[in-house]
Amino acid sequence: MDRFYRSKDSTLLKEASEKIVDKFLIIGMNLINAKKFKSKTEHQLYHIESTIKKHMEIGEYRKEHESFEQRIKEWVDTKQSILEVKLDEANENIARNKAYFEEELAENQKHTLWKIKDME
């Protein structure tokens, strides 16, 4: 086999073909690495897309939670205002009853004082 490569041109052709084979090997390895990178990237992209969907669900949950929280605040505010109105009415009623009781007490004291003076 060496006899075919004895000339300078044959040696250069042999070296060039060996370099081409080495370059094809490098290109093949790069293609394999690119394919691995592509599959890894596709997997990561799928994972990111599924995560984004979950985040969207969380975002919708937050919106729903905020609206529910707002409804609860409005309901509590409504009940609080109703209770405040009832409390004010009860305080007014107590004040009226107290004034009536004080008037009745004063009236009874007058009658009792007159009765005591009449008895003396």
Structure description:
With 120 residues, the chain is mainly α. The protein has one domain (2-119). Helix content is 93%, strand content 0%. The protein contains 1 helix and no strands. It has one helix at residues 8-119.
Mean pLDDT: 86
Portion of residues in helices? over 70%
How many beta-strand elements? 0
> How many separate helices?
1
Q: Kindly report how far apart the N and C termini lie.
A: 160 Å
Percentage of β-strand residues: under 5%
- What composes the largest sheet? none
Count of separate structural domains: 1
Oligomer: single chain
- Indicate the radius of gyration in whole angstroms: 50 Å
Summarize this, please?
The chain has 120 residues and is an all-alpha fold. The protein contains one helix and no strands. The mean pLDDT is 86.
Chain-wise SSE layout:
Layout: H1 8-119
List keywords for this structure.
93% helix; 1 helix; 120 residues; mainly alpha
